[in-house]
Amino acid sequence: MNQDIPPNFACNCGRGFQQESAFTRHQKSCIKGKKCLFSALSKAKDLLGSAKRARTRLHDQGSSSHPISADAGPTYPALDLQVSRNDSDTPGVDIITTPSSTEEIAASAPLSASGQEDLPLAQRRTRRNDIQLPKCYRQFEDILPQPLPSVPTNRINQSSNSPPSHRTQSLEPLPPFRTPRNVFGLLRQFSSPNPPSHDPEEAITLEDISRGAIAGSVRERPLFSKVIPEDGVVDAASPYYPYPNRSSLELGNWYWNGGVQKSQQSFNDLIKGVRTTPWGKINSMLGQNDYEDRTEEWEDEDAGWQKTQVSIQVPISHTNEQAGVQTYSRVDLYHRSLTGVIKEKLANTGDDELFHYEPYELLWHPNHLQREVKIQGELYQSPAFMDAHQKLQESPRELDCDLPRAVVSLMFWSDATHLTSFGNAKLWPLYLYFGNESKYRRCKPSCHLGNHVAYFQKLPDSFKDFACAHTGGKGVGQSCTTHCQRELFQAQWGVLLDDEFLEAYAHGIVIMCCDGIKRRFYPRIFTYSLGGCPCPRCLIPKNRLHNLGMPRDVQQRTTLLRSGEDRDRLVTTARKIIYDKNYAIDSTAVENILKSCSWVPTCNVLSNRLSPHDFNVFEALVVDLLHEVELGAWRSLLIHLLRIIRSVNKDLVHELDRRYRLVPPFGQSTIRRFTANTSELSNMAACNFEDLLQCAIPVFDGLLPDKNHNKIIQDLLFTLAHWHGLAKLRMHSDLTLDILDVTTADLVCASYDAEELDREVRARSRRHTREAARRSQANNGKKTAGQAEKVTLTADKPLRRIVSFNLQTYKFHALGDYVSCIRRFGTSDSYSTEPGELEHRTGKGRYLRTDRKSFVRQLTQIEHHQTRIRCIKSHIQQAESSDVVDVTASDPSVHHHIGQSEKIHDDIGSYLRAREGDPAMKHYFIHLQDHLLRRIQLAQSGLKAEGDIRNVLFKRNRIYHHNIARINYTTYDTRRDQDVINPKTWHCNIMVLSDHDGEPRTHYRYAKVLGIHHVNVVYIGGPYHTTHRLEFLFVRWYEEVPADSGVIMLDRLRFPPLNNEDSFGFLDPADVLRATHLIPCFSKGMRHEDGKGLSCTAGDKGDWREYYVNRFVDRDMLMCFHYGLGVGHIYSHNVTPDLKGPVIHNDASDGLDIDGNDLEHGESDDEDNEGSEDSDYDYTGVEEEDLFDQEKNGSMESVVGELENMFIKHVFDYEP
To answer: Of 121, 146, 820, 829, which has the highest C-beta tally within 10 A?
Structure first.
């Protein structure tokens, strides 16, 4: 063909043709052209689908004022929505307007087929979701969690551009600014009539409010290297400085931030290919601190570490020859400047986006409540933050300063920790968290929001030599040593609260924020978590601590609050006696002044230096759920319950251990496997004690032979578990706080005497043996310690003592402060000690890199290494764009996910014949056809019409099996969570909403999942023969056991007889609310004692007679039983909640049942990993080789003959 003549027909592959016939033949075989055509059709399909989804979302969720952005999932494209302010007097949902033009919707829709032309056709095929029923026929609407209502962009711009007003006279105060309600009925109310100039809620995506669900993973750019200069000098303007290139930066990040199980030798072996990089020089530059000679200046100067020598005054009593006050100054404190840490935080662009400058009040007004209800959650939503912000705005401004003013919330945490399992190496760090950041990010160590600001020092061993030198070798005694330790602690706090910080506390710090607005920030200390009158908040004496919940106790907690002024006056008087008159610390004169109120003769630096600015140190000492309840009150109660059981029958302890071993696990780390000997209580953390409490009711049920005693213990465990679940909620309302207040008054128990446990007897015996050995050596030096020990053991055989439960402890008394503390500072997880305990892992990991000698100094250098490398990487990542790869299995925007694989399947006829005679498979095929027919008819016509089940034909006559199903659900605190259902493990129980046909006693039904399947069916009852991929669950239903009248207890379930018509059924996965935790009722025993069942499919050989529904398994499950009070449980917002407190079960009870009562440590259970979606482990099905083989599609023996030709000649577009 002449090359000069242009072709008349051109293909997408680049070839040209003059004749149409040749072009047509080429098109039939052109692979590249078909790929391009498929890509174009896929793009068009996505455009139309995005427009349809936008219309559907506006119709179904018209009340939402903050739709999920495009990053939240592939189903919701980002639309530029304009929110209109509701000016009507009646509360309602604000109207949302959307762009009217299709071009705007198309521009925001993701093009899923772009960049996939090189993939095979089967992998690029667009998969349809499982068939969805109309909204009116669904049991509940799965509403995705949404961020809190955001402020319209135009209002933010007006607020940031408008100058501050200086009105001398106001005719009428303007109302506070309020955002519209979102779909959950939540709205925000600010103290100012103007909207905030910076709204972090705009940056929140669905991934941020989903626990463990990652909608996409970042695809890293390939590493590249530049030529390293021969002289080793690196340009300071390089983004990788002090590293010469990207490869060296990634390698350094791998070593310092990629784990601690590395050594310098392994690192040197790895870097053989990049030997020219000056690693020693780079590490030295990264680890430089302020107490060293600085040779480099950083563009983003951070708060470096400083070393300050601390001195204290040691009082020597008049009983010594050298009486007086001696100065001891041999302690070096490694610390960072508090103002420097604040400046570093506010200059960090990564944290600034989610940093709240202005607090707000969170209100809840759903349709089923008559009034607005306050919500307690974050610290920046609490009354304490609102009061501090309002007081700051009403205070006089700085001279000639019109800058916006904001509060920086400081939350301190300190406690000593052992750095090794063996040895005496300890670290006493001080962590600083910012209350302006969300608690959901603060509790994640991976976010690195815990700032190490100081490593406190204790008195070194040289202090004993110092004391002996000034006391003639006698020493100063234990009381004086303890006093000097307190003085050293306060002196170190005095170094942190320097003049620069006090100046900032009073006059603020001017900082240019990342949004380009200069603000003046005022630091404020809100909480400080620390590991006679034992309470640090009130002066209730010890002999009244057992009055918890009584009206007098509630009144005295307010009237007997500790006062800083009274304390300062008494402490000053006592210190004059000690330091001026040389009295001993434990002398009678000092005790008479301080002992009545449990004071110590030490000045509190926080109170002395910040009290002029209205700081109350006693208010900052918040409650601690982890140490006061889980490791405190509950642990003491559990030990006493074990004593009672041991006193009745020592063999009951072994029965208790056996029951705990039989408790099934739940979730990834919610309920873990219990140890073999739970009663020993050895090597247990707080999370283990929490699991023991959540599962205690079924375990202790029926252990005591006396029914009255058993009922008392069951009521006590129910009340304590209910209180514990309410106290640890992450989102509280005024309604749930009232229930918590009532439950606190019920936390009283009778005092039962019991004998000591074996472990207590052994511990007391060892203690007495050591004391006897010391006394024997003191009396006569003839006997050795070993001989004295033998004599004591043989002569005095230890006897069991009678022990009573001690209620007069601070940890039991502290339970009464939780309601007031939550109302003041927000929920307890915001200031829990758990994040600090998790942060200890960071220090322990860094300790492994030190030489174990002067490790504190090396820890400061390692902290600088890691922080600066993360800073360099954050700057690079902000400058780069990353591709997002969708992971459907962990996509939180879908309700459930069942694998797309069709590798494991069975012929339906063979599947039924292999299980012939099984009671669970009776009428299996007929019931399955009926279930599928109803779903198809409802989806197509929206009507429940009668149809012929013979119109449902199974394509290739196959049923496909899956091992697991993932259920995503919206929690009570409007976040997204996921449960994994596995029929082969204990994680097989689910809950759905009741049908409400006959006024059910409860709101839920429960089922055991026996199989997870899907089928490809062809429906021939309509005008079109359409193919559907339908997913379903084969379940075995539970039935409820009538509760005993007048008893407060967990709900009980049991399996109906196998020959019951309604014992088995099929369920649409879209109807599943979430997984549930069922614990066997051990006191009732097993149904088949011989271990032989009647049905292999149902697996009834291991059935128990009854099961308990564990409503305390997690926070969300607790709120499921407080029906109507869960903010995120929209399906429950159709009834008026009953707020009368716990409900006693009666034979016939209807209405709302609200007596339900529910670092982040943990490990996954091994059973969770038994089989993935696509594995064929422990299954004898047939593996399909090619889903699109035309030969196999045409070899279906059991398909109706009229459809054989259609199957052979046509390739159905169904989900493979």
So the answer is: 146
Q: CA 1213, CA 1043: separation in Å to the nearest integer?
A: 52
Distance CA 952, CA 662 (A): 44
C-alpha angle 1202-1203-1209 in degrees, rounded to nearest 5: 125
Query: What gap in Å lies between CA 778 and CA 78, rounded to an integer?
Result: 82
**What is the spatial distance between Cα 892 and Cα 205, in angstroms, rounded to a whole number?**
11
Render pLDDT for 165-175 as a digit per residue (tens, 0 to 9). Answer: 444 444 577 88
Side chain identity at residue 1035, one-letter code: V
Q: 346-360, 389-403, 449-463, 920-934 — which is least confidently predicted?
A: 346-360
In order, the DSSP letters of 693-728 are HHTHHHHHTT-SS-HHHHHHHHHHHHHHHHHHHHHT
Strands 405-414 and 518-530: parallel
Q: Which residues pair with 1032 in a beta bridge?
A: 1013
Using one digit for the tens of pLDDT, what is the confidence trace for 223-261? 333 444 445 555 666 777 777 777 777 777 777 777 666
Q: How many residues does the chain have?
A: 1216
- Band (1128; pLDDT cuts 50, 70, 90): very high
Long-range contacts of the stretch 54-59 (C-beta < 8 A, 24+): 54/79, 54/98, 54/105, 58/96, 58/98
Structure-block tokens of residue 240: 């990788």
Encoding tokens for residue 1008? 């055991």
DSSP secondary structure, 516-552, as one string: S-EEEEEEEEEEEEE-----SSB---GGGTT-TTSHH
Residue 1185 has pLDDT above 70, yes or no: no
pLDDT greater at residue 144 or residue 546: 144
As a whole number of angstroms, the distance between CA 1182 and CA 1112 comes to 42
**Which of the pair, 686 or 1180, is modelled with greater confidence?**
686
Q: Cβ neighbours of residue 857 under 8 Å, at least 6 residues apart?
A: 307, 334
Question: Which residue in 600, 619, 616, 620 sits closest to 413, CA to CA?
Answer: 620
Query: Cα separation of 831 and 726, whole Å?
Result: 16
The DSSP secondary-structure symbol of 557 reads H
**Most confident among 447-461, 789-803, 1185-1199 (mean pLDDT):** 447-461
Helix (H) or strand (E) holding 37: helix 31-60
State how far the Cα of 1075 lies from the Cα of 1054, in Å rounded to an integer: 17
Least confident of 208-217, 380-389, 925-934: 208-217
Does residue 933 register a pLDDT over 60? Answer: yes
Q: Tokens representing 809?
A: 């402890």
pLDDT at 1016 over 50: yes
Nearest-5° Cα angle at 309, 307 to 310: 125
Helix (H) or strand (E) holding 16: strand 16-17
Distance in Å from the first CA to the final CA of the chain? 45
For residues 1097 and 1069, is the Cβ–Cβ distance under 8 A? no
Q: In 606-646, which ranges are E strands?
A: none
- What is the per-residue burial (b if ≥16 Cβ within 10 Å, else e) of 905-927? bbbbeebeeeeeebbbbeebeeb
Backbone φ and ψ for 268, nearest 5 degrees, come out as: -65, -35
- 305 - beta bridge partners? 336
C-alpha 860/C-alpha 130 separation (Å) is: 55
Q: 1112, 1175, 736, 1113: which is closest to 963 by C-alpha?
A: 1175
pLDDT digits (tens, 9 = 90+) for 85-109: 333 333 344 433 333 333 333 333 3
**What is the C-alpha radius of gyration for the chain, rounded to an integer number of angstroms?**
35
The 8-class DSSP code of residue 114 comes to: T
Q: Are 418 and 425 in contact (CB under 8 A)?
A: yes
Query: pLDDT-derived band of residue 59, with 50, 70 and 90 as boundaries?
Result: very low
- What would the pLDDT profile of 402-430 be if each residue is shown by its tens digit? 999 999 999 999 988 989 888 888 999 99
Per-residue tokens: 352: 């600034």
1005: β partners: 992
